[in-house]
Amino acid sequence: MPLMQWDETMSVGLDELDEQHVELIALINEAFEAIQRSDESRLMELVDHMREYAEVHFETEESVMRSCGFPELDAHREMHGQFAEKAEDFRRTMRSRTNLTEIFIFLSRWLTNHIMVEDRKLLPYLPPRNDEGA
Fold first, then answer.
1. Structure pTM?
2. Which end of the chain, N or C, is more open, meaning fewer C-beta atoms within 10 Å of its C-beta?
């Protein structure tokens, strides 16, 4: 069973960002499954990929926010920086951690909260979606 599940309530109103969030959720789920299987080498690969993908996602998200005139960009950028620092710290100390499951539960909760609360603040600044004919 996955640790996290994407659904439409998590949409931030922009397909590119939604797709990146889906990918981040998939990576967290894969890493959680690797923990359950005690597959340390796969877990290390996934953690590295997750960190790299998060960097790309944060750059994309911040670029969208900048282009929309999002007034909370600096605070949002700071949250991204804090997450990146925690992820790097986790990467360095992962082998010495005793309960990786708790860490991934924390990551999933952080990402869910970040999407549902912080990223969704962008919605009023985006042009309306044109879903007609889709």
1. 0.87
2. C
